[in-house]
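Backbone-to-sequence.
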């Protein structure tokens, strides 16, 4: 039943060393080769944006080469136009700054009076208090001393310092110097843009050929997996680029219109900057907001324009991030927020501002590769938004830590979508199976066993709508040390409702008995089934085989004849407990011949194939989950605890 624990070998250690060396080499390549890699990566990402336009032009009737050239020329015209507009706006803002000098000086003076001025007043008052207390009567250290005597130069050996003579330098021509500075500043981005443009053209021209070559290089032997990885990456990146570009463009337009209404000059520049820097995750938009707020404070005499600017950015960002973005693409990029922040720091450290802009798509590519390449699964675990642990693993881990509150919180979220029976089948019982495996392997200590028991008991009682709150405070921890979880939960109900968990004088055919075969897992599964049925307002009782056998040892005159309608016999290990199951079925059929017997046969954990239930003619139905068992009870008791249907009463 338990899987063998892998033993680390020398080969594993050597493989880890190779992985570390390879990772260091990749990082060195990314850093020292950034001058070559950055234009290529930019061209590849731009090709994802341009590929839909190329396909549109081809559908219209243009050839492949003509479609690529039209798309690239349109991109160059748009980028050049936007750059020219931004440059013109920047020059206009720079020229208009001197006229705001008076406003800036008055704002700075006002801020100084409100901050440093009040601090000076407090310091002066504190100094007076200190002087009055006699602590400030010490003589001045240097204020009352006589000035030191300075010897003239002719009495010393020090030569008098000569005045520096101005050197005759010929200043360069002003137009030539200005042109040189402009060309020096603009050469690097122009060079990068030219390389990106050339690479982009060839990538679009060779798009299908590059895809085929990548498939051959990455996984020629497994075309299905490689194609799935490429389609997944292309779909996620295309969705990310298109949705993010559309949202950021809309934010830029909203900021432009809002700042125009507020009265902030050069509103178009700030709208374009907001749209561009919003590609920087989390911090880009607030950097622009801080810059615009400072500019708004400089151009207006009061503080109203500054406050309205900040409120505009705050309102737009809240609406977009909380309403529009989840509606458009639901944050389905596949990255956790922490991964986005860490990726921004990492790629900006490697490639500077360009790396900051490309951090999210680059990291998204790594996550997609981790989902489809087993060797890179670590990237998907660290950076992806998929849970690192399954729901049963999370329940077991938190039970080991004694954190029942978090289990209950997650369970309530689960119960908003599905039933308690489905939660037990999908989460709680598999979590307990993990505990059984560790217990069989001796990997869990006594204190951890007790912690798991306490957590599970607390969770089950908290999720049970029939459990009264005041009875939970009477639970004794020491009881768990000598009982299983199922026995403890059953004992709680007996303490509240009596030895037989309710009266014996009941309407005919209204009782349902739930019987386990004796193991700890059987007891817990039987108790969970009992609570599920009681939540459905069905009078279910949890009994064991010894209870069933010893019931006739005492007289029960109040017992209603034919009170039992159904009997569930629960087995969590159908193969090992086959003989016990058959004996129990025979015992129940001999004592309660008219009852409907349902065998609850849970699948064998870690079994290679599903085992068919043991043939037994006395069993009316077989089910394999608590949810199916609950459906059987609902079909027999459609009105809850009312009398069962007539067609089942004859069974």
């Amino acid at each position: 039943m338990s899987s063998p624990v892998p033993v680390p070998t020398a080969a594993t250690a050597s493989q880890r060393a190779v992985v570390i060396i390879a990772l260091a080499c990749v990082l060195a390549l990314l850093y020292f080769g950034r001058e070559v890699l950055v234009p290529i990566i930019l061209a590849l990402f731009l090709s994802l944006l341009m590929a839909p336009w190329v396909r549109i032009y081809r559908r219209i009737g243009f050839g492949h080469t003509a479609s690529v050239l039209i798309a690239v020329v349109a991109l160059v015209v748009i980028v050049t136009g936007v750059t020219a507009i931004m440059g013109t706006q920047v020059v206009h803002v720079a020229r208009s700054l001197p006229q705001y000098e008076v406003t800036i000086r008055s704002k700075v003076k006002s801020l100084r009076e409100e901050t440093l001025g009040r601090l000076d007043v407090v310091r002066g008052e504190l100094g007076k208090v200190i002087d009055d207390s006699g602590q400030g009567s010490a003589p001045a250290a240097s204020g009352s001393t006589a000035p030191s005597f300075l010897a003239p130069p002719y009495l010393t050996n020090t030569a008098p310092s000569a005045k520096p003579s101005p050197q005759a330098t010929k200043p360069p021509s002003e137009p030539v110097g200005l042109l040189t500075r402009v060309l020096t500043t603009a050469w690097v981005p122009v060079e990068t843009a030219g390389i990106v443009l050339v690479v982009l053209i060839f990538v679009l021209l060779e798009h299908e050929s590059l895809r085929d070559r990548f498939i051959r290089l990455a996984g020629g032997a497994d075309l299905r997996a490689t194609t799935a990885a490429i389609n997944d990456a292309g779909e996620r990146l295309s969705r990310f680029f298109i949705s993010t570009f559309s949202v950021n463009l809309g934010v830029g337009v909203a900021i432009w219109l809002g700042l125009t209404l507020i009265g902030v000059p050069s509103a178009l520049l700030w709208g374009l900057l907001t749209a561009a820097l919003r590609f920087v995750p989390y911090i880009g938009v607030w950097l622009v907001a801080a810059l615009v707020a400072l500019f708004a404070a400089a151009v207006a005499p009061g503080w109203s324009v500054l406050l309205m600017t900040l409120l505009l950015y705050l309102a737009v960002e809240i609406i977009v991030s909380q309403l529009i973005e989840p509606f458009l693409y639901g944050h389905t990029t596949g990255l956790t927020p922490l991964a986005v922040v860490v990726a921004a720091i990492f790629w900006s450290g490697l490639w500077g501002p360009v790396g900051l802009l490309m951090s999210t798509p680059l990291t998204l590519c790594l996550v997609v590769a981790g989902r489809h390449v087993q060797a890179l699964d670590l990237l998907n675990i660290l950076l992806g938004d998929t849970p690192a642990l399954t729901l049963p693993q999370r329940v077991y881990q938190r039970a080991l830590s004694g954190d029942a509150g978090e289990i209950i919180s997650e369970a309530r979220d689960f119960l908003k979508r599905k039933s308690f029976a489905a939660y037990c089948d999908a989460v709680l019982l598999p979590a307990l199976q993990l505990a059984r495996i560790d217990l069989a392997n001796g990997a869990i200590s006594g204190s951890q066993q007790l912690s798991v028991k306490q957590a599970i008991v607390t969770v089950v009682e908290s999720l049970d709508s029939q459990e009264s709150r005041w009875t939970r405070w009477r639970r004794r921890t020491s009881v768990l040390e000598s009982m299983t979880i199922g026995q403890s939960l059953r004992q709680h109900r007996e303490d509240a409702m009596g030895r037989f968990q309710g009266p014996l004088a009941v309407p005919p055919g209204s009782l349902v008995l739930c019987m386990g075969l004796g193991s700890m897992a059987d007891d817990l599964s039987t108790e969970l089934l009992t609570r599920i049925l009681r939540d459905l307002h069905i009078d279910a009782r949890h009994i064991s085989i010894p209870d069933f056998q010893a019931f006739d040892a005492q007289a029960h005159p109040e017992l209603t004849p034919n009170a039992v309608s159904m009997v569930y016999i629960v087995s969590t290990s159908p193969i090992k407990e086959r003989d016990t199951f058959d004996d129990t079925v025979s015992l129940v059929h001999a004592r309660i011949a008219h009852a409907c017997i349902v065998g609850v046969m849970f699948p064998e954990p870690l079994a290679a194939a599903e085992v068919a239930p043991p043939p037994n003619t006395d069993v009316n139905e077989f089910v394999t989950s608590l949810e199916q068992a609950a459906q059987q009870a609902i079909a027999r008791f459609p009105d809850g605890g009312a009398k069962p249907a007539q067609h089942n009463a004859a069974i």
